[in-house]
Design a protein that fits this description.
By secondary structure, the chain is α+β, with helices and mostly antiparallel strands. Helix content is about 30%, strand content about 30%. The chain starts with a helix and ends with a helix.
């Protein structure tokens, strides 16, 4: 009987210990488990980015820095450069080189003229390769010079992993001055950044949006006779092939692309409730998978809409009144045996009344962290406006913005003149 009781107690103990081990292996809570397992979207694209167009923050990425050919998504750069540097009423001549471009093409004839504005609709709605060359040659004199403009613009807006060779996105390579082989390519991060510039920051953003949102457009070509441009009799009709514009509420703009090397590519934008998202996809399937780009775009846009909220930096703005004066060593004061201090302020430029407050998208539950780094003491002389510290605004542990702390007044250093003045005040007056 005692043996049976001992065996029973031993079995109960083993069951209890097994239960403890099992329970300890479970997550503490559902939310805790979710935090430890970041969401991974199932995307067809080899490289993809979801970007906050307002701030340039990447909200989701897959191989975001991988350089790949981008096909006709190239044309958003061609379009914005033409808008910024061209005159829309100009007549642009079609060269034999432009006429030699492969399909998809407008079928320009050498010696014909086209209004620059008309060519931009041909470029963005139908993705005509010959129209891109006519535009490039008109703006820069040659496609090579236009490519230089494209590459400079890319660098100006922070795209350093992009290299343009053609204005239309056809697959191309060339040998650089250093002997290296360069390919017409970009990254998903850079492509999203270029689109963000086109719709948010360019002085011609409204014109860009108007063109890329137009459902259809018709125009004609011209012939030059004695300095005048007369209709040639040829007319053209363009239809917008950006199917995303009718797929989601708030769809704003976009451009498709395809070549044999690039596969299907897409860059598009959506705006809803103060939130503007840009999606960039590279190598998103090959024939017969042209619909992959649309499913990937919806997947990323919905991820952004469901998981991110609009916030402004003013919600976390550092309180300037909490800045304490800093002690200034060897600084002049009103009297002897006093300590010099300098007052501080945050160097915040006053925005114009028409400018909207800076906003950004944060993941639900995410907060802007603020930390200050300010000198404890200074040594005279100290000039008004001298930078003595900074306020850092961090998102996800990374610095998003910096405000500088500066002095509000001059504090001269103690010198012989000051010493004589103090002695006279104390002993002779």
């Amino acid at each position: 009987m005692k043996l049976v009781r001992r065996s029973y107690r031993k079995a109960i103990t083993l069951l209890f210990m097994s239960a403890l081990i099992f329970l300890s292996s479970l997550p503490l809570s559902l939310s805790h488990a979710e935090e430890k397992a970041p969401e991974t979207l199932k995307l067809y694209a080899q490289a993809a980015v979801l970007m906050d167009a307002s701030s340039g923050r990447i909200l989701y990425e897959k191989n975001a820095q991988k350089a790949l050919p981008m096909a006709s998504t190239t044309k958003i750069m061609t379009c914005i450069l033409a808008l910024e540097y061209g005159n829309m009423t100009d007549y642009a001549a079609a060269s034999s080189y432009a006429a030699s471009m492969p399909k998809v093409k407008l079928n320009v004839s050498p010696g014909e003229y086209y209004k620059l504005e008309d060519l931009l609709y041909s470029l963005m709605l139908e993705s005509h390769n010959d129209a891109a060359v006519v535009i490039a040659e008109h703006i820069a004199g040659s496609t090579e010079s236009f490519a230089d403009m494209m590459n400079q613009k890319a660098r100006d807006i922070g795209c350093f992993d992009t290299f343009f060779i053609t204005p239309n996105g056809l697959d191309a390579t060339l040998t650089g001055e250093d002997g290296s082989l360069k390919t017409h390519s970009t990254t998903a991060a850079d492509l999203a950044r270029i689109m963000s510039y086109c719709i948010m920051d360019s002085p011609k953003k409204e014109e860009f949006l108007k063109i890329t949102r137009t459902p259809s457009y018709s125009f004609g070509s011209y012939q030059e006779k004695e300095g005048s441009f007369l209709p040639s009799g040829r007319t053209f009709q363009c239809h917008n092939h950006n199917a995303f514009l009718s797929m989601m509420e708030g769809a704003l703009s976009g451009k498709t692309g395809f070549t044999g090397n690039a596969g299907y590519c897409y860059v598009g934008a959506l705006r809803r409730d103060q939130r503007t998202y840009v999606v960039a996809l590279l190598a998103c399937g090959w024939p017969n998978n042209r619909t992959y780009k649309w499913s990937d775009t919806r997947e990323l846009m919905n991820y952004g809409l469901e998981n991110f909220e609009y916030h402004t930096l003013s919600e976390a703005a550092y309180d300037e009144s909490s800045l304490s004066p800093i002690r200034v060593m060897q600084g002049q004061t009103e009297g002897l045996n006093q300590t010099a201090y300098v007052h501080l302020k945050i160097d915040r430029p006053t925005p114009p009344p028409s400018k909207e407050e800076e906003g950004l998208l944060l993941k639900k539950g995410e907060q802007i962290q603020v930390q200050s780094k300010i000198s404890d003491t200074l040594t005279a002389p100290v000039a008004a406006g001298a930078q003595v510290g900074e306020i850092q605004y961090l998102i996800g542990g990374e610095v998003y913005k910096i405000e500088y702390v500066v002095t509000t007044e001059d504090i001269p250093a103690i010198d012989l003149s000051w010493c004589l003045h103090q002695i006279l005040n104390r002993y002779c007056l």
